[in-house]
C-alpha cells in the first residue's frame, strides 16, 4: 500500500482560477458555469498550444499515479478542485500557470518538469522552435521557456517579448521563489502592490516572486527581456 503523502502547506489562492469555472479549450465545459474572465494578460497556458496541455496532462497523471494518489487526495493537497484536475488530466483544460505550479508541488515535481522542459544533465541547445511557449498575447507577445537547469531547483531561463500595450499579470509564487530580469530592448515596467518600476534596455532587476506582480509595455515599441526564475525548493515528501 503506497504511503500517503503529507499535505502541502496551504498557499494563497490563484485569482486567475475558479474551482468550478475555468477556460477549457477556448469554450465552456458542457453543463458547467461560464468560463471565468481572468483579465488582460492573465497567466494561463498558451491556449493555442494544445501540445502543452497534452504534455501537462500526461505528466500530472504519471506523477499522481507514481505517488499512489487519488484525484481526491491530489485535490486536497493542491487546492485545485477534483473536477479541474480531471479536465487537466484529460488535456481539456487551460489552467493558469499558478495552478500548474500548485499541482507540481503537490506531486513533488517542478513546474518545468510538468510542462515538458528538458531537465537532464549535459549540454542543452534550444532554438526558438524548441522553446516551450507558455503565454501569448493577442498582439503577438509571448513568454517561452528556453532552457532549464539540471540541478535540484530546476532554474528556468525564459525569453519574453511584450508588444505595445501588452500586460502579463502573474500570480503569487511559493515563498522563496526569485526572478532575475535583463532587458535587451525597450522599457519594461514592473508593477507591484507598492508601486511601478521602469527597467530600461541594458538594465536588470531582481525581486521575490512570492507576491502579485505584472510586466507591462506602455511604449509604442516592443520590449524584449530574459527572465531567470529560481523556484522555491519543493516540500519534503
TrEMBL record:
What segment(s) does the record annotate as region Disordered? Answer: 1-40
Describe the location of the HTH cro/C1-type domain by residue ranges.
60-114
Q: Which InterPro entries match?
A: Cro/C1-type_HTH, Cupin_2, Lambda_DNA-bd_dom_sf, RmlC-like_jellyroll, RmlC_Cupin_sf, TransReg_Diox_bact_type
Biased composition, class Low complexity, residue ranges: 16-40
Q: Which ranges form a coiled coil?
A: none
Q: Which domain of life is it from?
A: Bacteria
GO cellular component terms given for this protein? cytosol
Keyword DNA-binding carried by entry: yes
Identify the SMART domains for this entry: HTH_XRE
Q: Name one GO molecular function term.
A: DNA-binding transcription factor activity
Keyword entries, A-Z = DNA-binding
* Tagged with keyword Ligase: no
SUPFAM superfamilies linked to this entry: lambda repressor-like DNA-binding domains, RmlC-like cupins
What Pfam families has UniProt attached to this entry?
Answer: Cupin_2 (PF07883), HTH_3 (PF01381)
Q: What is this protein called?
A: Helix-turn-helix transcriptional regulator
